[in-house]
Amino acid sequence: MIGVKLMGGLGNQMFQYAIGRKMSLKNRTNLALDLTFYSNQTDDITPRHYELGCFKLKPKLITKEAPTRKGILKIISKQPFTNTYNEKHFHFDPTALDQPDGTVFNGYWQTDKYFSDIRKELLDDFTITTPLSIDDQKVFDDITNETSVSLHVRR
Fold first, then answer.
1. Is 53 part of a structural domain of the chain?
2. How far is it, in rounded angstroms, from Cα 10 to Cα 12?
3. Torsion of Cα atoms, 38 then 44 then 46 then 52, to 10°
4. Residues forming a β-bridge with 123
5. How many beta carbons lie within 10 A of that of residue 106, not counting itself?
6. How far apart are CA 125 and CA 59, in angstroms?
7. pLDDT in tens, 36-83
8. Domain enclosing residue 19, as ranges
9. Are 4 and 19 contacting, i.e. CB atoms less than 8 angstroms apart?
10. What is the C-alpha to C-alpha distance for residues 70 and 82, in angstroms, rounded to an integer?
11. Fewer CB within 10 Å: N-end or C-end of the chain?
């Protein structure tokens, strides 16, 4: 099993999921997402929540509610996680892709060089399955029926 420690908002979670998906396919094993970051947040960071639930993907989830982290890993995996791979820097590190089954990935992984070869699978996984609310559908219709521009400003 491959594990990924999720942290941050939607964009970060998508990158983190993508490396986990890549490595689970490469190692022909399952993927588990560690959500404990979201139950251990402090007041000095922007509150975040798990946001991948609206997509088609269905990984195993590890949460704080599990009896113990070690206990849940034994439940969902035939072998415990035996290796943690921490992202060393914010640019592509090819040694990350050499990690074996049983590895937990900890980092942001913000380059498609890690997973560009599984683009088709990721597009399928990131298909939204949650229906839009009436208000959201109106905004969607307004955007798609006009020439639209989007601007995202990070704080």
1. yes
2. 6
3. -10
4. none
5. 18
6. 10
7. 998 877 888 888 999 999 999 988 888 765 455 555 555 555 556 889
8. 2-130
9. yes
10. 11
11. C
Beta-carbon count within 10 A of 48 CB: 16
Q: Which residue reads 């000095």 in tokens?
A: 44
- Asked whether the beta carbons of 2 and 105 are under 8 A apart, the reply is yes
More confident residue, 154 or 30: 30
Per-residue tokens: 73: 């890993």
- The pLDDT score that the predictor gives to residue 152 is 85
- Number of domains, the chain: 1
Q: Report yes or no on 152 lying in a domain.
A: no
Q: Is residue 135 part of a domain?
A: no
Q: Is the pLDDT of residue 35 over 60?
A: yes
Q: What is the 3-state secondary structure (H, E, C) of the chain?
A: CEEEECCCCHHHHHHHHHHHHHHHHHCCCCEEEECHHHHCCCCCCCCCCCCHHHECCCCEEECCCCCCHHHHHHHHCCCCCCEEEECCCCCCCHHHHHCCCCEEEECCCCCHHHCHHHHHHHHHHCCECCCCCHHHHHHHHHHHCCCCCCCCCCC
